[in-house]
Design a protein that fits this description.
- The protein has 396 residues and is α/β, with parallel strands linked by helices.
- It is 45% helix and 13% strand.
- It has 15 helices and 13 strands.
- A seven-stranded mixed β-sheet has the order 2-10-9-8-7-3-4, sandwiched between helices.
- Strand 5 and strand 6 form a beta hairpin.
- Helix 5 crosses helix 6, helix 11 crosses helix 12 and helix 12 crosses helix 15.
- The longest helix has 32 residues.
- The N and C termini lie far apart (51 Å).
- The site of (2S)-2-hydroxybutanedioic acid has 6 residues, from loops.
- (2S)-2-hydroxybutanedioic acid (LMR) binds next to loops.
């Protein structure tokens, strides 16, 4: 017997609850779990520009033979430009790109690259952070440490403590920084805070690893990668994990990219050869379908404008839900300040509910949230926002 020493592993904290929600037969149940965008009808639609690009690709397709293991060239150039913007003109020649299996693939391959480059050095994650960061980083053999990030009761960043922690981290540590719409808090550093963070990272010789999972869902396509652009002006090297899951709605296609900004063109070839080798040893190469769609959307001016409009509409809906929830909570709990809900960005917020109360909400009210108290605000809509606010108000 080969497997008798194994015990069952608990379901992932995010994906396990989504499954429990599907099993719940209650009418009026509310799903605030997994971080996917939803419209006012609770659907996660295929974006129109994506559907049109997909039809064109299938109509023109003549083979399913292999593409270059590093990813389709058009996709690699366009995703790099989407993230670096105009800075791509100067940085493109020294930025390696690997197409990855979603943002998770980019985080894992980047961690493996770092483990090869700086054996024994730790990775620092924000406290709190997205549940899967730990597994992705430790899976590459990195020792996990955390930096203070967010004070849940004050709904505010712990910037001074974060800077102190980064100052005391061993030189050449890997520092994972979410560029916008922080998961699970929704709280992002302001530009002057980013400047202080990047100054510290630079002075201490750390390697920043930006996690760009929500570009366009926060303030805008350019604003949501502000820290990446700021890093480009100061640092010779850094990594960026890009996900196309949320901003292209390509969740199940597993489309992402790892960008590796290096000090010069010769290093770029080296890091690209390393990540190709790492990917080859793990799964050979990423699936192409999502990457070809993204390439098509970004290279066709009509599709690109349509996509930008749709994405802006999604971001506007999230901002509207935030204002709506802040107002609904103000009405129910005038003794508390809820302005932070509207100030924070993206899909997530962390109102500070204990796990036992999260369990009660699920069992008694059929409201599903992650046990760390994270809410995906996109699961709210006109017909359930008041019900949710009623259930939340007595818990705060
Ligand atoms: C989330 O945080 O809910 C999403 O990023 C989905 C996932 O894979 O956890």
């Amino acid at each position: 017997m080969s497997f008798e020493n194994l015990t069952a592993v608990r379901s992932d904290s995010v994906l396990g609850l989504a499954t429990a929600f599907l099993r719940d037969k209650a009418a009026g149940k509310i799903d605030l779990t997994v971080g996917v965008y939803r419209d006012d009808q609770g659907r996660t639609p295929v974006m129109n520009a994506v559907a049109e690009a997909e039809r064109a690709i299938i109509a023109a397709q003549t083979t399913k033979s292999y593409l270059p293991p590093i990813g389709p060239p058009g996709y690699r150039a366009r995703i790099r430009r989407l993230v670096l913007g105009d800075l791509d003109d100067g940085l493109g020649d020294r930025t390696g790109v690997l197409q990855t299996t979603g943002g998770c693939g980019a985080l894992r391959i980047g961690a493996e690259l770092f483990a090869r480059a700086q054996p024994g050095k730790p990775v620092y994650l924000s406290d709190p952070t997205w549940g899967n960061h730990d597994g992705l980083m430790s899976g590459a053999g990195l020792r996990i440490r955390t930096y203070p990030y967010f004070d849940v009761s004050a709904h505010a960043l712990r910037l001074d403590e974060m800077l102190d922690c980064l100052k005391n981290a061993p030189e050449h540590s890997l520092i994972v920084l979410q560029s916008s719409c922080h998961n699970p808090t929704g709280a992002d550093p302001a530009p002057d805070a980013w400047a202080a963070i990047l100054d510290t990272v630079e002075r201490c010789g750390h390697l920043p690893f930006f996690d760009v999972a929500y570009q366009g869902l926060g303030t805008g396509l350019r604003e949501d990668v502000l820290p990446v652009h700021m890093a480009a002006g100061r640092l010779g090297e850094f990594l960026v994990a890009v996900s196309c899951s949320k901003n292209f709605g390509l969740y199940r296609e597993r489309c992402g990219a790892l960008l590796m900004v290096t000090p010069d063109g010769s290093r770029k070839g080296v890091v690209e050869s390393q990540v190709k080798d790492i990917a080859r040893g793990m799964y050979s190469m990423a699936p192409s379908h999502g990457a070809l769609i993204v390439d098509r959307v970004l290279s066709d001016s009509k599709l690109r404008s349509a996509w930008r409009r749709e994405l802006a509409g999604m971001s506007k809906r999230l901002a509207g839900l935030r204002t709506g929830l802040a107002r609904a909570m103000d009405e129910r709990r005038p003794d508390l300040d809820f302005s932070w809900i509207a100030r924070h960005k993206g899909l997530f917020l962390l109102p500070g509910i204990e796990p036992a109360a999260v369990d009660r909400l699920r069992e008694e009210n059929h409201i599903y949230m992650i046990r760390d108290g994270r809410i995906n605000i996109a699961g709210l809509n006109k017909s359930n926002l008041a019900t949710f606010a009623d259930a939340l108000a007595p818990l705060l």
